[in-house]
Design goal:
globular, two-stranded antiparallel ribbon, about 475 residues, mainly alpha
Amino acid sequence: MQSSVIFDKKIFFNILFGLSVTELISLWNYVYFKESAVIFFLIIACYAVLCLKKLDWGLYLILAELFIGGKGYLFFLATGNFVISLRVALFSIFLLIWFLKKIKNFGFTFSNYLKDTSIRILLVLFMFILYAFFNGYTNNSLKNVFLDFNAWLFFLLVFAFLDIFKERRVFNITLLLLFTTVITTAVKTAAVLFLFSHKIFTVGDIFYKWIRDTGVGEITHIDQSLFRVFFQSHVYALISAALILGFLFTKMQFKKNESVFFGAVLYFSLFILVAGQSRSFWLSGIISVILMTIYSLISKKNFKALVFPIFLFIIIFSLGSLTALISGYPSGNIFLVRSKSLQAESSASSRKNQFLPLIKQIKKNPLLGSGFGTEVEYISNDPRIRQKNPDGVYKTYAFEWGYLDMVVKLGFLGVGIFLLYLFFLFKESKHFFNDNVFLLPLIFSGFSLLVVHMVTPYLNHPLGIGFILLLSAYTFSLKTKTAISQK
């Protein structure tokens, strides 16, 4: 298979420059102008003008913010106890402008979308989401309901995605954007790891607070000079690695400059996964590689696929040594220290302690759920919680168990519809595997997200929903082109 051109040198360097400047302005704004709204309003004003002129560029910026922004607060507007994130602002502006531009023909376009089975299933899911909102509104804290529900609003972008992702060019630029953000995120991860491991910055100082308060990620001391630098957007390193490995396992051919670029992106993606030290990402990666190997052996008769896992193991082991070197960690084996800390770590114990209380809550309303904002009480070993409450008793509406979290709010029926939607996406896309070089690697990436969601919630967060929308739009564009060609 021959790939379409993804790597464009000019676009790559423009994206790289834009991402770097954004990060620097975010830090500068946080340190010197955190209380000022000038930068925030300037950004959204420029963004609104951009969307009015070029809607596809507006969508690129929404995706770029997802790829690097974590929880979405690289820039934010704080007014009293209410905080508006850059992500919410971009989402609202883009959706409004897109709808106003498309309103004349929206009825006709919407009726065409309804002919698609997966879209009809998605609309049924919307009904369950609305029911969970009103169920939560009736029974739970309004603040918790809003904070729990607002992530699902990202699904409202689905028709904008379907509309804009009609052209292959848009998808190619999106992939280039994704891969470029992986490179910048890897550099940022390495820099943060070095700065904290060598005590240039420390936990609690202004740089640490920038990482935490902007929702980008967490910096945790592990052992001696070793720190864990984990960004929520690291999930896109997992997705990128799965994509490129999918290219390799399906024997996709590249042009020379693309081969070098994809190799670099894979290396940076694996570095992020190693340095981020997320065991749930490691588990998802292992399962995904096993699945790719089996598929390549059975479907493609590609016996060279047996070499890939060995090759990956060598690279990952060397990246573990590189991470230890950056940290100045004397033992050098970060995999061993992370496995030893499994029982003692607060996040692992929280998952264990959440399980039975979640099951108990699910039994109260198994079919339709208890609605958004539903709180469950459990014993937490998080030091921050123990500091406030020595016995560790903690109530929250956000849980580590991704699927159980969804069942609590949406019930088994709602989660069943959600999974049915993903199943139909995979089922309908299989007809294009042999004719499209990107689709199967995208499916592998989607599978890696499904696995990681078991113990780290992403499918109920804009970071995961964003990728689902990408996969939906790309699959829908292929089906539309096939339908047109058959007329």
